[in-house]
DNA sequence: ACGAGGTCCTGCGAGC
DNA sequence: TGCTCGCAGGACCTCG
C-alpha cells in the first residue's frame, strides 16, 4: 500500500518519462475516484496539457501542468502508476482508471483495483490549502526531533494513531508506523502526550531511518504495490514486525503480538521489547 | 478531545 | 464445487 517510500519510488520512476511531455487523448474509465471535479472537466483540462514536473507530497503524486494546475493522484491501497512503452494488453487495461498517450509510443496509466484512490485537479489556491492541511515531510532536512515532538505531543491518542495522522505528519501509514515504533522500542498504544523527550528522540530517528531505508529498497511489496516500472519493492524482507504476528521477534525471540485495538488496524509488536519500556 | 463505527471498493481466502 | 462472509485499510465522515 503506497506510503511515503512507495510513492517516492513511483515518482522517481515516472518523472523522466513524464516531465515535459504532453497528455494526448486522456481517457477516464472510472469516475468514482474523482474528487471535486467532473470527468468532463478533468478530461478537458488534461487534453493537450504539458507536464511541467512531477513530485511527491506525503502519499500523493503531484503532476504540475504548464497551465499551473496540478493533477494530484493518491494511490491509497491498490493504486499504481506506470508508463508503458507498448500498448496495454487486456489484463493491463482491466483496472485502468486513467490513461493517456504521451507520444513516442508511451502511455501513462493509473490503475487501481479497489479504487480507494483519488484524483484531484487543483489550481494554485486550491493546492495551497490542500497541502497546508498535511503535516511536515519527515525526510526533509529541517525535520528535527523538536518538530516531531511538537506535532505529536498535543494529543492523548495512541502514538501509533498519531503517527499515521496525515495532518500531524506526512506519509507514514500502517507498515512504517509499526516498524518505526518497534525500532524506537515504544508501545504503540502509549498516549502520545505521555512520551518523554528522549522517547520522541528515538521515534524521530526511527521514523527517518526506516523511511529512508525503504526508499532505498524501492518500497515494500506485500501484495499490490508496484514501482513505476511495474516491479516489486524490496523492503518486505527487511520488515521487523509488520505482517509477522506470531513469528519470533528478531531482537529477543519473543513471539510477536498482533492486535486490532488501535483504530481497528493491524498492529504488530513485541510486548517484551516495546511493552515495558516506559 | 476522544473513541467507535460507517463509508468507499474489489479480490481473496476461509468456512460450510 | 459454489456460495456467503469477513477482511484488507487510508482518509473521511458522523455520532455520542
Brief descriptors of the model:
single chain; 278 residues; alpha+beta; 4-stranded antiparallel beta sheet; 31% helix; globular; DNA-binding
How is the topology of this model organized?
Layout lengths: L3 H15 L5 E5 L10 H8 L4 E7 L2 E6 L4 E5 L4 E6 L5 H4 L2 E8 L2 E7 L5 E5 L1 H9 L12 H8 L6 H6 L9 H10 L13 H20 L40 E3 L7 E3 L1 H5 L3
Antiparallel strand pairs: 1-6, 2-3, 3-4, 4-8, 5-7, 6-7, 9-10
The protein binds a DNA duplex (16 and 16 nucleotides) through loops.
Question: Concise description?
Answer:
The protein is an alpha+beta fold and 278 residues long. The chain has helices spanning 4-18, 39-46, 90-93, 124-132, 145-152, 159-164, 174-183, 197-216, 271-275, and strands at 24-28, 51-57, 60-65, 70-74, 79-84, 96-103, 106-112, 118-122, 257-259, 267-269. The protein is globular and about 55 Å long.
Q: How would you describe what is shown here?
A:
The chain is an alpha+beta fold. The mean pLDDT is 92. It contains nine helices and ten strands. Helices cover 31% and strands 20% of the residues. The protein starts with a helix and ends with a helix. The chain binds a DNA duplex (16 and 16 nucleotides) through loops.
Strand order, main sheet: write it out.
1-6-7-5
Note the run of SSEs as H and E.
HEHEEEEHEEEHHHHHEEH
Radius of gyration: 20 Å
Proportion of β residues?
A: 15-25%
Q: Tally of extended strands?
A: 10
Amino acid at each position: 500500500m503506497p506510503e511515503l517510500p512507495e510513492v517516492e519510488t513511483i515518482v522517481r520512476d515516472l518523472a523522466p518519462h513524464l516531465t515535459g511531455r504532453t497528455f494526448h487523448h486522456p481517457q477516464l474509465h472510472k469516475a468514482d475516484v474523482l474528487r471535486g471535479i467532473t470527468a468532463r472537466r478533468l478530461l478537458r483540462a488534461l487534453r493537450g496539457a504539458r507536464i511541467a514536473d512531477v513530485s511527491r507530497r506525503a502519499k500523493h503524486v503531484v503532476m504540475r501542468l504548464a497551465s499551473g494546475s496540478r493533477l494530484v493522484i493518491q494511490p491509497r491501497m491498490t493504486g499504481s502508476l506506470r508508463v508503458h512503452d507498448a500498448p496495454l494488453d487486456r489484463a493491463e487495461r482491466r483496472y485502468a482508471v486513467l490513461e493517456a498517450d504521451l507520444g513516442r509510443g508511451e502511455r501513462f496509466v493509473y490503475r487501481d483495483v479497489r479504487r480507494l484512490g483519488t484524483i484531484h485537479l487543483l489550481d494554485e489556491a486550491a493546492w495551497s490549502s490542500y497541502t497546508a492541511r498535511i503535516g511536515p515531510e519527515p525526510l526533509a532536512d529541517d525535520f528535527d526531533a523538536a518538530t516531531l515532538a511538537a506535532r505529536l505531543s498535543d494529543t492523548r491518542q495512541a502514538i501509533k494513531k498519531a503517527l499515521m495522522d496525515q495532518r500531524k505528519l506526512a506519509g507514514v501509514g500502517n507498515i512504517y508506523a509499526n516498524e518505526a515504533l518497534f525500532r524506537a522500542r515504544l508501545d504503540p498504544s502509549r498516549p502520545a502526550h505521555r512520551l518523554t523527550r528522549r522517547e520522541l528522540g528515538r521515534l524521530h530517528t526511527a521514523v527517518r531511518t526506516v523511511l529512508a531505508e525503504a526508499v532505498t529498497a524501492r518500497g515494500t511489496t506485500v501484495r499490490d504495490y508496484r514501482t513505476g516500472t511495474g516491479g516489486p519493492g524490496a523492503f518486505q524482507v527487511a520488515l521487523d514486525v509488520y505482517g509477522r504476528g506470531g513469528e519470533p521477534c528478531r531482537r529477543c525471540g519473543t513471539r510477536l503480538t498482533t492486535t486490532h485495538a488501535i483504530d481497528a488496524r493491524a498492529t504488530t509488536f513485541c510486548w517484551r521489547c516495546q511493552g515495558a519500556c516506559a
